[in-house]
Amino acid sequence: MKRIWWAGWVVLGLALAQGRLEAGVYGVSGSLASTLEGGFTLEPGEVYGKLQVGQESRGALGLSSSLALGPLGYLAYGLQAEMGVGGLGGMAFAEGGAGPLALAVRLGYRPKRVFPLFPEEGVFGRLSLRYRLVPKEVVGLLLERGEVLRAEVSYALREEATYTLGAGFSGLPYLVLGWKGEVGEGMEVLDLALRLGGLNRLEAGLYLGEASLFLTLSYPFAGSLGVWLGDLGLEGGYREAPYAWVRYAWRWP
Amino acid sequence: MRRRFMEKPWGILLLALGLALAQSVSEILDRVERNLQDPWQAVVQGQIQGPGGQEELKARVLAIPKENLFRIEFQKPGSLEGNFTLITEKEVWNYLYLTNQLIVSPKEKAQVQGLGFSPQGLGDLKGLSERVSLRLVGEERLPEGVVWKLVGRAQEGQGFATLELYILKNDPRPVRFVFRDEVGKVMADLRVVEFKKASLRPQDLKRYPKDAQVVRR
Question: Measured between CA atoms, how close is B109 to chain A, in angstroms?
């Protein structure tokens, strides 16, 4: 009886806290896995969790907090602990911006990848720094060891739309071209990025408010097409084998 | 004995004067509120003591007072260009251009430090007057015309200690804000220019890029 009371209080507490919950089913090569992601905003910060249960299962529990500087900037930081197939893992992260500088850094370890919620394997990390030289020009540096190993520098110029030119290295040098701009009256956005050379990938995102569309195409061949229709997310593609992922998100209050 | 007799009427007179002036402040703010009922826009510009020392600030203020909606679009300093702050009845939204994030906070949690002044106050004078105990110190002549000068001490945690507020007399609206710190150093000296009535809709003020990451605190 005491246990039921406890469970009741926990459920009530989480229901009253601001939160989100995303539940999904991921299917690849005839096997299914369920995915669950959730986050609850509490007074000192956010508690979040991720869980994938299938042929290989893994779960993570994280704590994040943030510092808001009004119109000057925002910084979020946190820690995540993981367990599941292969053993324990974890990650630390900080991301945000203040004035002319934006930063995103993460460093973690995971003995075995479990796609799609836990895509990296081994020691993985990412450092992204962007600096606003003048109001319309931003330079960036990206170092990443994750699904790919790469280093990239870029320059972005905003003249109505934002044009990006960059160069990177991932085994071989590659070129970065980007275009991002408004495509409607209501601040709908189209975001295109092309990488050619040592890394070959086209990424496109169309953001319409109630609906968003995503496309990625890579060589050696991999690709995905996804859409979010309000709270429903549908994704399908090829990644060593064909896959599909259906998700539904709840947000409250 | 004689002195005490003299002190009494003086005390009463001062008290009466104090009450009259206190009443004038709320009367002045009421007049401003009545004058600024319809949607309006203006440019706020001047010097601020930012994180990188003294900087020039320029921002466009858009207001729909009846809906309790105020939007401040930053144009200078360059590091804030493209950012905006939106104040609604219960929330403060801060859009950050560089990280493409919209940070939504409840009003009571949305403290603004580091600018040396309160951007919220530039549009929402009534809200500002709830956090600063203002009193009328007299009238002055500014280039815009004759103004009432109000001064006051801010509650804790506003990012500034005292405020001087200048209200135009013949068209009651704020024309100058001077924010100071504890030792009286000017943190921000801002003038309101290019004031005009405008046809604005709530959806115009709530616009943000559809690909922005929305963070609720």
Answer: 10
Contact (CB, 8 A) for A79 and A62: yes
Cα(B94)–Cα(B84) distance, integer angstroms: 6
Q: Are residues A66 and B85, on separate chains, in Cβ contact within 8 Å?
A: no
Residues of B in contact with A209 (CB under 8 A): 210
Nearest to A191 among B98, B101, B211 (CB): B211
Render pLDDT for B105-116 as a digit per residue (tens, 0 to 9): 888 776 655 565
Q: In B, which residues are within 8 Å of A138 by CB distance?
A: 98
> Do B114 and A69 lie within an 8 Å CB cutoff?
yes
Contacts of B119 in chain A (CB under 8 A): 70-71
Q: What is the pLDDT of residue B127?
A: 77
A147 touching B (Cβ < 8 Å)? no
What whole-number distance in Å separates Cα of residue A41 and Cα of residue A149? 34
Among the partner residues B78, B112, B209, nearest to A70 by beta-carbon distance: B112
- DSSP characters for A17-45? SEEEEEEEEEEETTEEEEEEEEEEEETTE
pLDDT in 10s for each residue of chain B, 217 residues: 444 545 556 666 555 555 555 558 889 988 988 898 899 999 999 998 876 788 899 999 999 988 989 999 999 999 999 999 998 988 999 999 999 999 998 887 766 555 656 666 676 777 788 888 999 999 999 999 999 999 999 887 777 889 999 999 999 999 999 999 889 899 889 999 999 999 999 999 999 999 999 998 8
B contact test, residue of A18, A64, A74, A129 with most B CBs within 10 A: A74
pLDDT tens-digit map of A155-189: 999 999 999 999 999 999 999 999 999 998 889 99
Whose tokens are 């000192």? That residue is: A44
In the A/B pair of chains, how many CB contacts fall below 8 A? 97
Q: Are the beta carbons of A41 and B217 separated by less than 8 Å? A: yes
Q: Do A68 and B103 touch (CB under 8 A)?
A: yes
pTM recorded for the entire structure: 0.88
Calculate the dihedral angle through the C-alpha atoms of B125, B127, B131, B132, rounding to the nearest 10 degrees: 20
- The whole-angstrom distance between residue A99's C-alpha and the CA centroid of its chain comes to 23
Residue A85: exposed, middle, or buried by beta-carbon count in 10 A (0-12, 13-18, 19+)? middle
Task: Identify whether the C-beta of residue A101 lies closer than 8 Å to the C-beta of residue A87.
Answer: no
Which of A227, A216, A79 shows the shortest CA–CA distance to A148? A216
From B129's Cα to the closest Cα of chain A, the distance in A is: 20
pLDDT confidence of residue B2: 47
Rounded Cα–Cα distance for residues A216 and A207 (Å): 15
